[in-house]
């Protein structure tokens, strides 16, 4: 990224932040829409200049009129481009949690009061991949806008860029909206061996809860990133039943404690990722497990609610409340 | 609808058809004036692009593109023997436009095609500027803009919608374009540009041999149109001088080279309508430099050309006239007497004759001996022409040797150039300086806009002789042969069976004739107010409308007009906005909900009426119950389409009266 542009953009954002409060419901109107000729627009103006020069040099009034017609079309396009976006209402309706490295889904609802609808609207979080939409009038469009997560914790996209060059690409009309958006990002699961000797539940003394690379086929479960290719159930995949992984291991105790001190080898994030891996595996097996972090303890349980609580604890670990 | 970033750059099938159609409309008028092989290149490119779209062919690799480009360049070089001039440039433009199509993949390429389209529309106006050309230009622009806007829709739209989009944009753009056209300052040409050669030169050339004008007179084309300030001279006095031919080689008359000087309208010229005749001429391009004025011209001016005048009283432009141009001139109503004497070389030049034509020479000798002075010799010659001569468009072909003798004594059948050239020959043989003038005589008056139309069929040749004490004097031997040529025009002067040969617009009915006159008058106004709107017109318009032409007045007028225009657009858009149409049931419900809201019961936007009733019931059961029955009827009326429920709902809502905390029923 060219640094002068960055510097300029930062200054612009500082100015913008003073004007625009964070909110989860924004309407687009003349106070937050900006408009400027695009590269195409500048080329078009240059073209009108050439036509004007042609008309002047040939003293040809019709060619001059054509040049003025082009300018006139440009001026009208300013209005048309603005009216395309004006009246659009954007609401943030939450976000889905995800694992670090995944694209996180934010749910945005769009509706427009513009009777012609909003066309060719590019929506993207700052520095993210854009998506293009058409919004019809009189209905609510529930769209998913993605942001790339990189680290565990909370993903707070800074600003949402909404822009459009409709109807002729001559002008870019855009706005930066500040949302109070945040999404939970769980640690990326990293496969590891279960640390030995720690996974014994207190009240289940004597029963091993070793779940490792055993050779007993336990069943099929949904494919997760990080699964070995050798374990993918290709037969089922060929029958178009989706990507599944075969699970092997020894059937063991269903009451396990995942403990921080067992996983911790000096790298906090690696430790959390490995714990996350085991959380997912144990959950898939339907095991009952508990979580012990230095600052939090979740008693053994199972089910989707428990899974979410555990993953949230992992994601929020170390977060200053 | 959601698109990936890659999809948005694709050209849809609809867009492709529109782009190719817009291109066809933009280049059609240009193709007509370009060599025929470009049609073939176009057809090939179209076929190729369509096959690419159908997946039968690939986009051309670079070497094929290079080959095609070089081939077209070579073809243009061959056709125009060089790259200089407007036609080769337009040829290049059209070729680039056509070939761009076969490498058009993305929207960006489509934009380049559209951009070239604008230049092509401008190029159309280089070759034609009449009203039809203007209308066609607007049409081209409309199709271009329709195709352009359609390319930015993410899904195909109906053809009707295409036209609406383009039409609305064009119609809304025209008023602001007119403001810009009127207000924007006009500059002179910034640098010299090559001029279009056009379909060829029209009118007469700079030399004359017997039989030339008889051909020209068959053309009904308009040469120029004239408006007079004040009273126009009589038609028989309208001798429009264009060229003076003073060198004769025995068969052709040519223009002797003379130095010319640039002229301008003399400042402070007082126009006296009794003495001066002031007129402005709109010329059709004839690709020559000479212009047409009445003799003697004392001033001339043009905003579009640099004018020159020479000592023969001729007016010419510095560069050939390739566009419609307008100039104004002032002439004297009658020639002044007593001009200075001819210089010896001038006398020599205007009396010199080549060998040959002994009978004509002998005739001139006898006149010279019998008559007292030069003036009498001229009269004698004119008298000679009143004899057995016949005015005809189809004279017999005369032998190259002694053509004047053959005409004067044998055939005696000829057109104006025969009379003029043999008359000048006789005068020179008698030692009187004489020369031929080429131009037009007469004109047709259009009463609708009060102007004269001068056609090619009005082309005429006459003579000028130098008389001591009088200077150059016009003499028209044709008038001596057939006075009606000058009084009534060439058609009246000819035999019945030759009249059909004269190039005149022919009409089957009076209605068609009247329509033609209206159309010509409209075209004339178009020329005056659109094509020839120039700096002078602009300044006088400002002075008339704004009471001055200072920059600030114009600026304020421009800003005011523009703001006014866009305010009108804003108001129109506001008035045309579609309003929210409520169901009748919702309308009946509105007062009830409003009153409840005032009482503290506000329905949330996402709540259905039933949910709202349930929420109200939890704290105010009586009110909630009333509301629940309304909700039930509402649901039945709206969602089940139950008309009896609808009536009941209406009745119920009419009976419910708000008393501040709940409803009471009145009946």
Structure in a nutshell:
The complex is a heterodimer of chains A (321) and B (667). Chain A is an alpha+beta fold. Chain A has helices at 3-19, 39-57, 61-85, 234-238, 260-263, 268-285, 304-316, and strands spanning 25-27, 34-37, 88-95, 98-99, 103-112, 118-125, 131-135, 141-148, 153-155, 160-164, 171-177, 183-186, 216-222, 244-249, 255-259, 288-293, 296-301.
Structural account:
The complex is a heterodimer of chains A (321) and B (667). Chain A folds into 2 domains: 3-185, Immunoglobulin-like; 202-212 and 250-316, no CATH class. Chain A is 31% helix and 30% strand. Chain A has helices at 3-19, 39-57, 61-85, 234-238, 260-263, 268-285, 304-316; strands spanning 25-27, 34-37, 88-95, 98-99, 103-112, 118-125, 131-135, 141-148, 153-155, 160-164, 171-177, 183-186, 216-222, 244-249, 255-259, 288-293, 296-301. A 5-stranded antiparallel beta sheet of chain A has the order 2-11-10-6-7. In chain A, strands 1-3-5-8 form a 4-stranded antiparallel beta sheet, with no helix packed on it. Chain A has a 3-stranded mixed beta sheet with strand order 4-12-9. Chain A starts with a helix and ends in a 5-residue tail after the last helix. Mean pLDDT of chain A is 84; it is low at 199-213. Helices cover 51% and strands 14% of the residues of chain B. Chain B contains 25 helices and 21 strands. Chain B has a 6-stranded antiparallel beta sheet with strand order 9-12-8-3-17-16, with helices on one face. Chain B has a 4-stranded antiparallel beta sheet with strand order 4-15-18-19. At the A-B interface, helix 2, helix 3 and strand 7 of A face strand 1, helix 6, helix 7, helix 8 and helix 21 of B. Strand 7 of chain A pairs antiparallel with strand 1 (2-3) of chain B, so a sheet runs across the interface.
């Amino acid at each position: 990224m060219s640094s002068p542009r960055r510097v300029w953009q930062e200054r612009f954002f500082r100015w913008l932040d003073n004007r625009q409060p964070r909110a989860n419901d924004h309407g687009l109107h003349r106070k937050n829409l900006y408009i400027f000729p695009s590269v195409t627009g500048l080329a078009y103006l240059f073209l009108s200049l050439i036509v004007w020069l042609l008309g002047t040099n040939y003293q040809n009034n019709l060619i001059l009129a054509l040049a003025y017609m082009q300018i006139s079309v440009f001026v009208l396009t300013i209005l048309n481009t603005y009216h395309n976006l004006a009246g659009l209402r954007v609401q943030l309706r939450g976000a889905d949690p995800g694992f670090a490295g995944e694209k996180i889904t934010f749910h945005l609802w769009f509706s427009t009061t513009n009777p012609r609808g909003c066309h060719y609207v590019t929506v993207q979080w700052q520095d993210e991949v854009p998506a293009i939409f058409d919004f019809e009038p009189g209905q609510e469009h529930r769209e998913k806008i993605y942001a790339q997560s990189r680290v565990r914790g909370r993903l707070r996209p800074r600003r949402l860029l909404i822009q459009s060059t409709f109807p002729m690409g001559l002008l870019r009309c855009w706005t930066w909206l500040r949302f109070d958006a945040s999404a939970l990002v769980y640690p990326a699961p990293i496969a590891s061996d279960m640390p030995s000797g720690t996974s014994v539940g207190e009240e289940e003394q004597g029963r091993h809860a070793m779940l490792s690379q055993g050779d007993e086929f336990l069943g099929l479960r949904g494919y997760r990133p990080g699964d070995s290719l050798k374990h993918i159930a290709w037969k089922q995949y060929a029958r178009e039943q989706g990507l599944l992984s075969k699970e092997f291991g020894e059937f063991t105790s269903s009451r396990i404690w995942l403990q921080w001190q067992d996983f911790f080898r000096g790298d906090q994030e690696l430790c959390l990722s490995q714990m996350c891996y085991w959380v997912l595996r144990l959950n898939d097996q339907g095991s009952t497990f508990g979580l012990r972090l230095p600052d939090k303890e979740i008693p053994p349980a199972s089910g989707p609610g428990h899974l979410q609580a555990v993953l949230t604890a992992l994601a929020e670990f170390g977060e200053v409340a | 609808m959601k698109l990936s970033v890659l999809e948005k750059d694709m050209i849809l099938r609809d867009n492709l058809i529109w782009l190719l159609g817009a291109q066809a409309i933009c280049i059609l008028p240009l193709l007509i004036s370009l060599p025929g092989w470009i049609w073939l290149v176009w057809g090939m490119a179209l076929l190729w692009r369509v096959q690419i779209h159908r997946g039968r062919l690939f986009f051309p690799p670079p070497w094929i593109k290079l080959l095609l480009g070089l081939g077209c360049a070579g073809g243009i070089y061959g056709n125009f023997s060089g790259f200089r001039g407007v036609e080769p440039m337009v040829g290049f433009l059209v070729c680039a436009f056509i070939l761009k199509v076969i490498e058009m993949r993305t929207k960006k390429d489509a934009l380049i095609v559209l951009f070239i389209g604008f230049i092509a529309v401008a190029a159309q106006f280089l070759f034609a500027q009449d009203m039809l050309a203007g209308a066609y230009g607007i049409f081209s622009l409309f199709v271009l803009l329709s195709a352009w806007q359609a390319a930015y829709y993410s899904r195909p739209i109906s053809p009707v919608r295409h036209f609406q989009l383009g039409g609305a944009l064009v119609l809304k753009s025209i008023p602001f374009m007119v403001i810009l056209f009127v207000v924007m300052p006009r500059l002179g040409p910034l640098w010299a540009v090559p001029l279009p050669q056009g379909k060829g030169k029209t009118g007469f050339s700079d030399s004359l041999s017997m039989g030339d004008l008889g051909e020209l007179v068959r053309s009904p084309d308009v040469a120029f149109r004239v408006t007079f300030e004040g009273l126009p001279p009589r038609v028989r006095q309208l001798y429009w001088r264009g060229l003076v031919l003073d060198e004769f080689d025995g068969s052709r008359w040519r223009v002797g080279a003379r130095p010319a000087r640039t002229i301008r309208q003399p400042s402070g010229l007082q126009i006296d309508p009794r003495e001066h005749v002031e007129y402005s001429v709109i010329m059709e391009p004839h690709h020559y430099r000479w212009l047409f004025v009445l003799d003697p011209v004392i001033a001339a001016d043009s905003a579009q050309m640099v004018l020159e005048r020479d000592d023969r009283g001729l007016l010419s432009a510095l560069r050939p006239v390739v566009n419609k141009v307008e100039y104004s001139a002032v002439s004297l109503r009658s020639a002044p007497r007593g001009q200075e004497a001819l210089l010896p070389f001038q006398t020599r030049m205007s009396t010199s004759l080549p060998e040959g034509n002994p009978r004509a020479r002998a005739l001139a000798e006898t006149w010279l001996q019998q008559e007292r002075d030069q003036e009498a010799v001229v009269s004698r010659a004119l008298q000679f022409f009143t004899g057995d001569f016949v005015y005809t468009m189809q004279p017999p072909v005369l032998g190259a040797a002694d053509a004047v003798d053959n005409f004067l004594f044998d055939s005696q059948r000829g057109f104006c150039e025969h009379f003029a050239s043999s008359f000048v020959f006789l005068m020179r043989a008698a030692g009187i300086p004489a020369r031929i003038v080429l131009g037009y005589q007469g004109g047709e008056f259009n009463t609708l806009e009060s102007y004269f139309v001068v056609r090619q069929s009005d082309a005429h040749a006459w003579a000028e002789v130098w008389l001591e004490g009088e200077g150059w004097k016009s003499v028209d031997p044709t008038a001596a042969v057939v006075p009606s040529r000058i009084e009534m025009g060439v058609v009246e002067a000819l035999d019945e069976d030759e009249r059909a040969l004269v190039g005149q617009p022919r009409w089957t009915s009076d209605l068609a004739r009247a329509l033609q006159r209206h159309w010509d008058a409209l075209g004339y106004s178009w020329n005056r107010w659109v094509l020839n709107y120039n700096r002078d017109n602009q300044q006088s318009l400002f002075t008339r409308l704004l009471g001055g032409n200072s920059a600030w007045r114009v600026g304020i007028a421009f800003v005011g007009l523009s703001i006014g225009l866009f305010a009108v657009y804003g108001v129109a858009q506001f008035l045309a906005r579609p309003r929210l149409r409520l169901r009748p049931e919702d309308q009946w419900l509105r007062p009830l909900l409003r009153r409840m809201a005032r009482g503290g019961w506000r329905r949330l936007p996402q709540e259905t009426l039933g949910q709202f009733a349930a929420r109200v019931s939890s704290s105010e059961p009586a009110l909630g119950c009333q509301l629940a029955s309304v909700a039930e009827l509402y649901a039945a009326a709206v969602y089940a389409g139950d008309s009896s429920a609808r009536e009941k709902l209406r009745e119920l809502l009419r009976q419910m009266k708000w008393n501040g905390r709940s409803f009471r029923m009145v009946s």
